[in-house]
Each structure stands twice: as C-alpha cells, then as structure tokens.
Design goal:
Blueprint lengths: L1 H17 L12 E3 L7 H10 L2 E4 L9 H6 L4 E7 L2 E3 L14 H15 L21 E3 L5 H16 L4 E5 L24 H19 L3 E5 L6 H8 L4 E4 L10 H16 L3 E6 L4 H14 L8 E2 L25 E3 L2 E6 L2 E6 L5 E10 L5 E7 L3 E6 L10 E7 L4 E3 L6 E9 L8 E9 L7 E5 L3 E4 L12 E3 L3 E3 L7 E9 L5 E13 L6
Parallel strand pairs: 1-2, 2-3, 3-6, 6-7, 7-8, 8-9, 9-10
Antiparallel strand pairs: 4-5, 11-12, 12-13, 13-16, 14-15, 17-26, 18-26, 19-25, 20-23, 20-24, 20-26, 21-22, 21-25
Length: about 525
C-alpha cells in the first residue's frame, strides 16, 4: 500500500512538472471568427493559447475540436448559424456527395426549404434574392413563419449538441435589413414586411432559439450603435451580440465612434457577451480599435477582435498581451481625445480625423520606457501608456513607428495633383540601422497612378497591388526601404503625388525606424 502511494506521488509530481505553464495575465479577452476547413491541430492549439473565444463553422467541424479545450479549458467555442437565407443547392442534386459532409447537409437543408417554400416573396410571388454578389442563388428566409423559426431552433440545438458552448446567429440585423438594392433588399421588398415586423419576427426567432438550446449561450450579429434601443430589445432575448464592422474597421467618424463605443459600454455593464470585431491588418487601426475596446471594457464577457476570418492570417500585435490591471472608473474626454486610467497604465483615443496632443494627468511611460507628460495622437489613433512602476523590457533593437496624418484622398478621378503630409521625428534618423515606409492604400492596383516623395530627396513609386483583390479595397503593403538620410529630426514633408487619371487613397502612412538600443541612450 505504501509503495502504491509512493508511485502515485511520483506520478503526480511528474504530471505537475510537465503541465503547460499558465498563460500570462492580460487585460483583454480576445476572440476570432475562424471560418474555413483547413485548420490543423497546431492551428487549434494556437487558438487555444491565444484566444478566449472562437467562432467556428459546424458544417466543417460538427464537434468542437478537442485540442481547443485541452489547451484552454476555459475557451468559449461558438458554432455558426446563418438565420437570413439559404443557398440554392439544386445543381448538386444527383451528384455523388459524401454522406454527412458539408455539401450534402447543405443540399438537404435546401431541399427542405425549397419543398416548403420558406422564403420571402415579392408582390408577384417571386422569391426574394439577397446579397448583391450572390443574387442568383441566395434567397431570404421568412423568419415570420413558425416552421422556419422551428427549423432554425432545431439547427441551433444540433450545433450545441456537438459540444459547442453556444450558437452564433449571423445576420440578425437591427437595421432593416441591409441597406442596398430595392428598399434595403436586392431584388424586391418582401410582401407585407415592414421595419417593425422585421424586428418583431427577429425577436420571436431569438426567443425560440434560446428556448431550444437551454442553458447554452446565444449571441447574434448585428447590433448597431445608431439604434441602441432595438439592439437592447434583441439582446434581452439572448446572451449577447456582435458588431461585425465595429467602428468601420477603424475608418470611423466622431459621432459613429461615440454611438458604437457607448452601446458596447452599455452592454458590458449589463454583463452580456459583447463581440466588437473589425477586419484589417493595419497596426495603427488595430491600436485605435483596441484602445477603444479598453475604454468600454467592463464585466466578465467583453471580447475584442481585429483581423481576417482566417486565424492563420492574423497579425498578432504585442499590445494585445498587456496587463494594465483593473480600470479606475469609466472613460472621460477632453474634446475629441478620450481616455481611461487603469491600475498600471492609461489608454487614449483621438476620434477626430486630424492629429491631437493629449496632456496627461501624471507622468507615464511609453512602450519604449520614455517618460512623458503629453503624447501625440494621429487622427483616429490610439495609444497605450504605462505607470512608472511598470518595468518595460526593451529589446536589443528598438522599433519606432512614426505616423503621419492619414487620409490623402485621390479616390475620385482627376488631373495630376499633390498633397503633403507632415511627419514629426523626435530622434535623429541617421542613427537608425534601417528605415522603411509602411503604407495602407485604398485601390492601389496600379503603380503608375502616383508616387511618394520624402522631403524632396527620395521618390518612391506606389506599391503595386496587382490583381482584383486590391481593387477598391484597403490593403497594407510590405515595408518599402527608405534612405534614412532623406529624413530629418523634426518636421518632415511627405508629398503624395497623383498622376493624371490616378485613383487611390492613402489610408495610413508610417515611417518605421529601427535603432540599436544604445543609439537612443539610457
């Protein structure tokens, strides 16, 4: 008996010594909408290590991947369910499909909906098409019908029976419904449908799904800051909600910022699940959005995401992992600069298009251990600062990102023109080991459309976003090498030239300088 006890003790010590180290504490709770079927166990392992909540497509993963919960038992996994439409799958009838596979299940759903004619119809009795880019094969579901609500409730119940902590309901819009095409619809306004009926039918649908899943969670998409009262009506039937393009992916205007952040704050104070997410890869936008999230963060279920709907393509920014402690009250503001103090730091956001300088209530330090009493903020920019007792560990090479004013807009066709951006450098650029220009451009699909000139000394062609993926979209490009001798300490003039007929917009401009630690002094 004693020998058995000793063996058990040795095994227990061995298990404890091999256990994964605890994840470092951080202020944020992060989520990802991770669609697609190509994730490996290593991908799920990284999700478990990095995320607090993940939304997956049960058509690809009918059961929650076990490695997620093994790596992080506390991670919340939600299964996706579209409530708005069904794709016409009739072309797949008669094909050899894998039984129980994604396509075969989609076909069965279509056949049931088609046989029972579950769709919205126009005054001529035609089914109503939805989505501009898929208008020939997507039909809107009439959620006013009890049998459609029962179908969605059963589908949601099947999702949580696969081990998911909850169901994520897409396209439950508080807006009636999407705002393009005819009266907000693509092919026609559904007969007999009004804004209030759309809201009432949506509430009945949410209620039916919540009843079906029992104690499992229900969150939906989309709440909207410009319509907080209907958003709260919807949330009252569920456990929380997402704003899928929160703050316009970083391209917000002041009034929109106030509305969207205020709604998230209200929902957080109710301790509901809040999922403000945005898409993109810009570090400046990520910091502004992340700081905005921290301004509104409250309760136990406040999450944040910024990135594409493919977790393997995420850019992970270091400030996501900061531990600022608890918030010391709600956010305040002076003009367009909003701030909130935490135990170990402070977050700020300038919601105006133009740059601003924020005067701080005490001395703080930057992420480069610089002590400051004021801090410059770019237009629509954010900043995280730290109290002086926080130890900042500096790497051997220090990166300085110097942001110019964004928003040089040549997106309308016109003659040759030039606009200048002022960029301030508080360090001597010739001490840098390397310099680079980082650009986020809108509609940058032709390098002949323009160029960028640094202090009249170095001319850089627009980077080339070749192919339709770059057409009429914001794209962040790889760093373009700069000659540090073309820069000066102090005011730098960055001239953006549009050639005849060029159409593009500079959404973000950053000069990145890399310094050996000793070059910046103690």
């Amino acid at each position: 008996m004693r020998r058995a006890a000793m063996i058990y003790l040795v095994l227990l010590v061995t298990m404890l010594s091999c256990a994964a180290p605890a994840a470092p504490k951080r202020t944020a709770q992060l989520l990802s909408v991770s669609f697609g079927s190509q994730y490996t166990d290593d991908d799920f392992r990284r999700m478990g290590e990095k995320l607090d909540l993940v939304i997956l497509d049960p058509l690809n993963f009918p059961r929650v991947p076990s490695v997620l919960k093994q790596v992080n038992p506390n991670i919340k996994a939600f299964g996706y369910c579209n409530t708005f439409d069904i794709r016409d799958m009739s072309s797949f009838v008669g094909r050899a499909l894998t039984p129980g596979g994604k396509t075969e299940r989609m076909l069965r759903e279509w056949q049931e909906a088609d046989a029972k004619d579950w769709f919205y119809h126009d005054e001529q009795g035609r089914r109503v098409n939805v989505y501009l880019n898929k208008r020939d094969d997507r039909y809107g579901l009439d959620i006013g019908r009890p049998d459609v609500r029962a179908f969605l409730a059963a589908k949601s119940k099947a999702i949580v029976d696969g081990g998911y902590d909850g169901v994520f309901l897409d396209n439950v819009g508080v807006r009636y419904p999407y705002g393009y095409g005819i009266g907000g619809w693509v092919s026609a306004v559904p007969e007999g449908l009004t804004e209030r009926k759309w809201w009432d039918d949506s509430i009945l649908m949410l209620r039916a799904i919540k009843e079906a899943v029992g104690d499992k969670l229900v969150v939906f998409n989309q709440v909207r800051g410009y319509n907080p009262e209907v958003s709260l009506e919807f949330v009252a039937e569920t456990d929380g909600a997402m704003d899928e393009t929160w703050l316009s992916d970083g391209n917000f205007k002041p009034e929109q910022w106030r509305e969207d952040v205020s709604l998230v704050q209200r929902l957080n104070k109710l301790n509901t699940y809040t999922l403000p997410i945005a898409q993109g890869a810009s570090e400046q936008a990520a910091k502004a959005l992340f700081a905005s999230y921290l301004l509104a963060k409250d309760g136990e279920h406040a999450y944040f995401a910024y990135g594409p709907y493919n977790f393997t393509q995420w850019k992970w920014f270091a400030f996501y992992d900061v531990d600022l402690g608890d918030a010391l009250g709600d956010y305040t503001h002076e003009g367009n600069v909003y701030s909130r103090r935490y135990e170990r730091g402070m977050v700020l956001v300038n919601i105006a298009d133009s740059p601003a300088t924020a005067t701080l209530p005490a001395e703080y330090q930057t992420g480069l251990a610089e002590k400051v009493r004021s801090v410059p903020l770019p237009g629509r920019g954010g900043q995280l600062l730290y109290t002086l007792d926080v130890r900042i560990r500096l790497p051997r090479t220090i990166r300085r990102d110097n942001m110019g004013e964004a928003g040089v807009d040549f997106s309308e066709p016109g003659p040759a023109a030039a606009k200048s951006i002022t960029l301030m450098l508080d360090v001597e650029p010739t001490k840098a080991s390397s310099a680079a220009l980082l650009l986020t451009l809108f509609d940058a699909d032709n390098p002949a459309e323009g160029e960028i000139v640094i202090n009249g000394k170095q001319t850089i062609p627009l980077p080339w976003g070749k192919g339709p993926a770059y057409n009429w979209k914001n794209v962040s490009f790889d760093p373009v090498p700069l000659d540090s001798a073309a820069l000066v300490q102090g005011s730098n003039t960055i001239t953006v030239r549009r050639h005849e007929g060029g159409t593009f917009k500079v959404s973000e401009l950053i000069v990145r300088l890399m310094f050996p630690r000793e070059a910046l002094g103690p």
